[in-house]
């Protein structure tokens, strides 16, 4: 059995910071950030927990899907780091919603939403679920070194969610991983075990921007070409491309190598920065709520992230 997306939602912490505001904190400028990335502003959690806006995105998706929490058979949450190491963010969201189903987190860095769709597809195929909630939620601001201008300007906090039910939407999907720590990683804290002989390095996100850039452009082009072909479609058939919102220049570079019309690539990175695995469902929710998606539209989703993970899929709306 296949699935369709029957509802979407998104939510953000209330505080926003513009590039100009960041330039009061670190040696940067709106000109540097916006010309290299397309980002103008981002949300940053100051008083909210990650679960606060993750559960809000989930509740909005359930409302859009006219689905009660008790109807859910599974909650999958993609996040790089929840509010707690245990319990999972998915279990916290479950408690907030009042759902009674199994719930677990999945970490595939920025590719998490596509990975979650792939896992959900397996549940539907095995006839193990009728309603699945996916929540992709990230508080990237907590992973960043706010003294490192080369990374802290790039990211934002936010959550996107989708409710899935049996249908015929997924036409093709692929996920992959390369098994690499460099060029993008953040170490976990090591605790205070007196016997440990491993040295604690700082726990902030490290990135080699140029390496990520090259990997991302190649992965997006290759994956899009493959999933379009496997869906039995051509690039002309695609109505919307929803790329992971890491950097406008990455999206533009991938776009220049494919024949999909430029206006079909959608972005909102200027307002949200890179929200990691939340970026695609946030964009999907924006298009859905704006009434831009019509029955039968072909959507191409493509993502890459730490790991290095990759994923892409074709959905018929
Ligand atoms: N403000 C001002 N100057 C800066 C800043 C900043 N915020 N950050 C770095 N610089 C400086 C550097 O110090 C360097 O100065 P120098 O030449 O005097 O040494 C100069 O700007 C150029 O730095 P580069 O790293 O070469 O800049 P580049 O043009 O490569 O752009 C960027 C950096 C935007 C990160 C680019 O490499 C990129 O787009 N990489 C893709 C990675 C990405 O988007 N990652 C997102 C997260 S990954 C993910 O989502 C999976």
Q: What is the secondary structure topology, with strand pairs?
A:
Elements: E1 2-11, E2 16-18, H1 19-22, H2 30-37, E3 41-43, H3 50-64, E4 74-78, H4 89-97, E5 103-106, H5 112-125, E6 132-139, H6 149-152, E7 157-167, E8 170-177, E9 184-185, E10 206-207, H7 209-230, E11 240-243, H8 248-257, H9 269-272, H10 279-289, E12 298-305, E13 309-316
Parallel strand pairs: 4-5, 4-6, 11-12
Antiparallel strand pairs: 1-7, 2-3, 6-7, 8-13, 9-10, 12-13
Helix pairs in contact: 3-4, 7-8
The structure holds acetyl coenzyme *A.
Name its key features:
alpha/beta, 5-stranded mixed β-sheet, globular, binds acetyl coenzyme *A
Radius of gyration: 19 Å
Overall mean pLDDT stands at 97
- Give the % helix: 25-40%
- Largest beta-sheet details: 5 strands, mixed
Catalytic activity: malonyl-[ACP] + acetyl-CoA + H(+) = 3-oxobutanoyl-[ACP] + CO2 + CoA
InterPro entries: ACP_syn_III_C, ACP_syn_III_N, FabH, Thiolase-like
Pathway: Lipid metabolism; fatty acid biosynthesis
Keywords: Acyltransferase, Cytoplasm, Fatty acid biosynthesis, Fatty acid metabolism, Lipid biosynthesis, Lipid metabolism, Multifunctional enzyme, Transferase
Structure description:
It is a single chain. The chain is of the alpha/beta class. It is 32% helix and 24% strand. It contains 10 helices and 13 strands. A 5-stranded mixed sheet has the order 1-7-6-4-5, with helices on both faces. Strands 8-13-12-11 form a 4-stranded mixed sheet, with helices on both faces. Helix 3 (50-64) crosses helix 4 and helix 7 (209-230) packs across helix 8. The radius of gyration is 19 Å and the shape is globular. 48% of the residues are buried. Residues 28, 32-33, 36-37, 110, 149-150, 153-154, 184, 207, 209-210, 212-213, 246-247, 249-250, 274, 304-305 line the site of acetyl coenzyme *A (ACO).
